[in-house]
Design goal:
The complex is a heterodimer. Chain A is mainly alpha-helical. Chain A is 77% helix and 1% strand. Chain B starts with a helix and ends with a helix. Classes of the chains: A mainly alpha, B mainly alpha.
Chain lengths: 338, 468
C-alpha cells in the first residue's frame, strides 16, 4: 500500500515539474531571451493564465507527502529548514512579480517585475534541483529520524551539480514552450536557444551518471536487480532523441512534449533508484526513512485511495478544459496588433 | 516554555494571521461576485422572482460591478496565494513533531484541500478573469460559481483540520502517532459544522461591508452613482443576513461546543474563575489572574447559564476546578479577544440593521452620516475575524491538539531549528510581508481611484492574456 502511494507521489511530483517547469523555464530565460517589451509581454501572457494552476501541483504534492509519509515530510522540511524557507520567499516574490507586472503601466515598473521574475524563477529551478540532489545523496538522519543541514551544507557539490542540471532542463523546457507559442524573431531566438540547451542536456545527463553512482550506488544497481525498471531511463533516452528529431523538423509542440517526457523519465528513474527509501541516510549510515517506516497508518492510506483518484480525475478535466481554452489558437497573437 | 517553541509560535501566529487577512476578503467577495453575476445573468424585466426583476440598465450595472470587484479579487487572491504557500510548508519546517504525530490524520484534509479545492479554484479563476468574451455568458456565470465553491471548499478543509486540533476524533494512537480510523468520523466531527459556518459567515460579513464601504466612498465623492448604489444595496442586505446568522445560530452553537468540549477555554473566554450556579454573563470586566477574580465587572446575572444550557440555574465549571497546567497560557488574552469579537459583532449587526431600515425607507443614499459610518466600518470586520481566531487558537492552549499533544512537544527539534534560526526567518517574513502589504495597498488604491468605468484596462497577467 505504501509502495502505491510512493508511486502516486512520484507521479504528482513529475506532473508538477512538467507543468510548472515550463513557466519556471520561461521565467529563467525571461530577461536574456525576451529582449523587447513586446516580447516580454508575449512571454508573460503565454503563461499568465496557467502558472498559478501549475503551482497548485506543488501544494498538492506537498499535501500527498504529508498525507502518506508524514515522518518524511516532518524530517525533510525541518532538516532542510533554510532551503525550504528560501523556496518560500522566492515563490512569494515570483508570484507577485508575475501578477503585479500589469498593474502599473510604466516601463520602469515592468523592468523591475521582469527582473524579479527572471531571477526568482532561475533560483527556484536551481534550488529544486539542489533539494533533489540532497535527497539522492542522503541526509545525516539521527535515531529519531530528524536531521539538520546548515545552508552551506545543503549547497554541497553534488547537490549544486544536480541544481545546475535542473536549471538547464527547465530552461530547455521553457525554451521549447516559447518556440511553440511565441512569434516572429522571438520564436526564432527561442528555437535556437532550445537547440543549444539540448546539447548541454545531452552532455550533462551522461556526465552526471558517474557522480550519481558515486553518492548512491543503488541509483544504477537497481537496474541490475530489477531489470524491468530500466524502462524509466529508457523513457528519458528516447525522449531526448525525440527532442532532437522534432527540433530539427521544427515541430515545436512535439519537441515540447518530448521535453516533458524527458523530465518524467529523469524523475521516475530517480524514484526507482531510491525506492524503497523515501528520505535515505547518507551512504553507509543507518536510520534512513523508507516507504514503510515513514508511512501513515494503513487505514489512512486505504481511505485516501478512495477519494484521491476522484480528485485527480477532476483536476485532469479542469486542466484539459483550461489548457484547450488558453492554447486553442495555433500561436498567441502578437500584443498590440499586427 | 522553551525559547525555540516561543519563536515557532510567534512565527506561525504572524504568518497565519497576516495570510488570513486576504482569504477573509477572497471568501467574502466570492459570495458577492456570484450574487452580482447571478442577478446580471438571470435578471429579466418580467421575471416572476422579484429579486431578479431587473431592467437592462440595472443588469448592466450589476455586470459592471462584478467586473470591478473581479479586479480587486484578482489582486487579493494573488496575495492570498503567495502568503498561503508558506503555511503548508511551515507545518513541516517549524512544527515537525506535530506533523509527524498528526500527519496520519490531518494529512487527509490538507491533501483534500489541494486536490478538491485548489485545482478547481485556480483553474476557474483563470477562466473567470480571462474568459470574458472567450466563453459564453453561461460558462462565465458558472465559473463565478466555481470560484465561490472552490474558495469555500478550501475553507472547509482547513476548518476540518483545525476542528480536529480543537476536538480530536476518529483516531487511534499507534507507536506514538495518531492514525486515522474513519474519514467519515473526521468529516462529521461535531465541532466542525458550526465552526465552519461561523468562520465563513465572518468572511461574508467582511465581503459585505467592503462592498458597502466602496459604494459609500464613491457616493460621498459624488462619483459612479449607479455602481455605488448597487454596491451599497447588495452590501448592506448581505451584511444584515450574515451578521444575523453569525449571532444565531452559528455563534450560539459554536459557544455551546466550546462549553461542552473545552471547559478551560470556555471559562477563560467568559472570565469565570469560580464555578457557579446561575453564572452571570460578563459584559465588561478585567480578569485578574493573580487574585483569580474579575475586576470592575458589569454582568447580567444568570444569563450565561441560560444562554449555554437554556436553564437559568445551570452550574458552569470555573477555572478553580481546572488544574492551572491545563489553563490557557494567557487567560486575559482569550477573554479580551473573545469580548472584542462579540462586541464588534453586535455593533456591526446594529449598523447593518440601521442601514437596511434606511434603505427600505429610501433614505440611505441621501444620509451622509450613515454613508460615513458604512465607509469606516469595514476594518472592524477584519478585527472581529482575527479576534475570533485568537480566541479559538489561544483558548486551545497549552495544547496544539486539545488534551492530546502539548504545544511544547509539537515544534521541530531545537537541533534542527534553533531559536536564533527561527528569529532570523521570522524577521525575514516581517520584512517581506511589509513590502507585500505596501504593494497590495498601492495596487488596491489605484483600482479604487480609477473606478469601475475604467473597464478592463489593467488587471493581472491573467487579464493581459485576455486582451491579446
Amino acid at each position: 500500500m505504501s509502495t502505491l502511494w510512493f508511486c502516486f507521489l512520484a507521479v504528482m511530483v513529475a506532473v508538477y515539474v512538467v507543468l510548472d517547469g515550463f513557466d519556471l523555464g520561461v521565467g529563467a530565460l525571461h530577461v536574456p531571451l525576451a529582449r523587447t517589451d513586446e516580447e516580454r509581454e508575449e512571454a508573460t501572457a503565454a503563461i499568465g493564465p496557467v502558472w498559478n494552476g501549475n503551482e497548485v501541483w506543488l501544494l498538492a504534492s506537498g499535501g500527498v507527502l504529508f498525507l502518506a509519509f508524514p515522518k518524511a515530510y516532518a524530517s525533510a522540511f525541518s532538516g532542510l529548514y533554510f532551503g525550504l524557507i528560501i523556496v518560500l520567499w522566492l515563490l512569494v516574490g515570483r508570484g507577485l512579480a508575475l501578477e503585479m507586472r500589469h498593474q502599473i503601466d510604466h516601463p520602469l515598473w515592468r523592468t523591475a517585475c521582469d527582473t524579479v521574475f527572471w531571477l526568482s524563477s532561475g533560483a527556484l529551478a536551481l534550488v529544486f534541483g539542489v533539494a533533489l540532489g540532497n535527497v539522492v545523496r542522503g541526509v545525516p538522519l539521527d535515531a529519531r529520524g530528524y536531521f539538520s543541514l546548515p545552508l552551506f551544507h545543503i549547497l554541497n557539490w553534488y547537490a549544486l551539480l544536480i541544481g545546475a542540471f535542473g536549471l538547464l532542463v527547465l530552461a530547455a523546457h521553457g525554451a521549447a514552450f516559447l518556440a511553440w507559442r511565441a512569434t516572429g524573431e522571438f520564436q526564432a531566438r527561442a528555437a535556437r536557444t532550445a537547440r543549444r540547451l539540448w546539447v548541454a542536456e545531452a552532455v550533462l545527463v551522461v556526465v552526471l551518471a558517474w557522480p550519481t553512482y558515486h553518492v548512491r550506488h543503488s541509483m544504477l544497481t537497481t537496474f541490475g536487480d530489477h531489470p524491468w525498471r530500466i524502462v524509466f531511463p529508457l523513457i528519458a533516452v528516447v525522449a531526448l532523441v525525440g527532442m532532437f528529431v522534432y527540433q530539427r523538423r521544427e515541430a515545436w509542440l512535439a519537441a515540447f512534449a518530448a521535453s516533458a517526457l524527458f523530465i518524467v523519465g529523469l524523475l521516475t528513474t530517480m524514484a526507482a533508484g531510491l525506492y524503497p527509501s523515501i528520505l535515505p541516510a547518507r551512504a553507509g549510515q543507518p536510520h534512513g526513512l523508507t516507504v514503510d517506516n515513514a508511512a501513515s497508518g494503513h487505514h489512512a492510506l486505504t481511505t485516501a485511495l478512495v477519494w484521491w483518484p476522484i480528485g485527480m480525475v477532476l483536476a485532469a478535466v479542469y486542466f484539459t478544459f483550461a489548457y484547450r481554452m488558453f492554447f486553442r489558437t495555433e500561436r498567441a497573437p502578437r500584443v498590440g496588433g499586427a | 516554555m522553551s525559547n525555540y517553541v516561543l519563536v515557532d509560535r510567534l512565527q506561525f501566529a504572524f504568518t497565519v494571521t497576516y495570510h488570513y487577512l486576504f482569504p477573509i476578503l477572497t471568501m467574502g467577495l466570492a459570495v458577492f461576485i456570484f450574487w452580482l453575476k447571478t442577478v446580471s445573468y438571470f435578471g429579466r424585466e418580467d421575471h416572476r422572482f422579484p429579486l431578479w426583476r431587473k431592467t437592462q440598465t440595472e443588469r448592466d450595472a450589476y455586470e459592471g460591478a462584478a467586473r470591478f470587484w473581479a479586479k480587486i479579487f484578482a489582486v487579493n487572491f494573488a496575495v492570498g496565494v503567495v502568503t498561503g504557500i508558506p503555511m503548508e510548508f511551515q507545518f513541516g519546517t517549524n512544527w515537525a513533531s506535530f506533523s509527524n504525530y498528526a500527519g496520519g490524520v490531518i494529512g487527509q484534509t490538507l491533501a483534500m484541500e489541494g486536490v478538491f479545492a485548489f485545482f478547481a479554484e485556480s483553474v476557474f479563476l483563470g477562466i473567470f478573469l480571462a474568459g470574458r468574451g472567450r466563453v459564453s455568458a453561461g460558462i462565465h456565470w458558472l465559473s463565478s460559481l466555481f470560484v465561490w465553491v472552490g474558495s469555500w471548499l478550501s475553507g472547509f478543509f482547513i476548518i476540518a483540520t483545525d476542528a480536529w486540533m480543537q476536538h480530536p476524533v476518529a483516531y487511534d494512537v499507534n507507536h506514538g502517532r495518531a492514525e486515522l480510523n474513519s474519514l467519515w468520523g473526521l468529516l462529521t466531527n461535531p465541532w466542525l459544522p458550526w465552526q465552519y459556518l461561523h468562520n465563513m459567515g465572518g468572511a461574508a460579513i467582511t465581503g459585505a461591508f467592503v462592498l458597502a464601504a466602496m459604494g459609500a466612498l464613491y457616493l460621498l465623492l459624488g462619483r459612479h452613482p449607479q455602481f455605488s448604489r448597487v454596491c451599497v444595496r447588495v452590501g448592506i442586505i448581505g451584511a444584515l443576513i450574515f451578521t444575523t446568522l453569525q449571532v444565531f445560530p452559528t455563534g450560539d452553537r459554536s459557544a455551546h461546543n466550546v462549553a461542552r468540549y473545552q471547559p478551560p477555554s470556555f471559562a477563560a473566554m467568559e472570565g469565570m474563575f469560580e464555578t457557579a450556579k446561575g453564572a452571570p454573563l460578563v459584559i465588561l470586566g478585567n480578569p485578574n489572574t493573580e487574585q483569580r477574580r474579575l475586576d470592575s465587572s458589569l454582568a447580567m446575572p444568570h444569563f450565561l447559564s441560560f444562554l449555554t444550557s437554556h436553564n437559568w440555574n445551570e452550574q458552569l465549571i470555573g477555572l478553580n476546578q481546572i488544574p492551572p497546567n491545563r489553563w490557557p497560557d494567557s487567560v486575559p488574552l482569550v477573554y479580551y479577544a473573545y469580548h472584542i469579537m462579540v462586541g464588534l459583532g453586535t455593533i456591526l449587526l446594529a449598523i447593518a440593521a440601521l442601514g437596511v431600515l434606511l434603505l427600505w425607507r429610501g433614505k440611505l443614499f441621501e444620509s451622509r452620516a450613515m454613508l460615513w459610518v458604512l465607509m469606516l466600518a469595514f476594518p472592524f470586520t477584519y478585527i472581529a475575524n482575527i479576534a475570533g481566531w485568537i480566541t479559538a487558537e489561544t483558548g486551545r492552549q497549552p495544547w496544539v491538539v486539545f488534551d492530546v499533544l502539548r504545544t511544547n512537544d509539537a515544534a521541530s527539534p531545537a537541533s534542527s531549528v534553533p531559536a536564533g534560526t527561527g528569529i532570523f526567518t521570522l524577521l525575514g517574513f516581517c520584512g517581506l510581508y511589509l513590502f507585500v502589504g505596501i504593494l497590495y495597498l498601492v495596487l488596491i488604491l489605484r483600482i479604487v481611484n480609477e473606478g469601475p468605468e475604467e473597464a478592463e484596462a489593467r488587471t493581472t497577467s491573467v487579464g493581459a492574456a485576455a486582451m491579446t
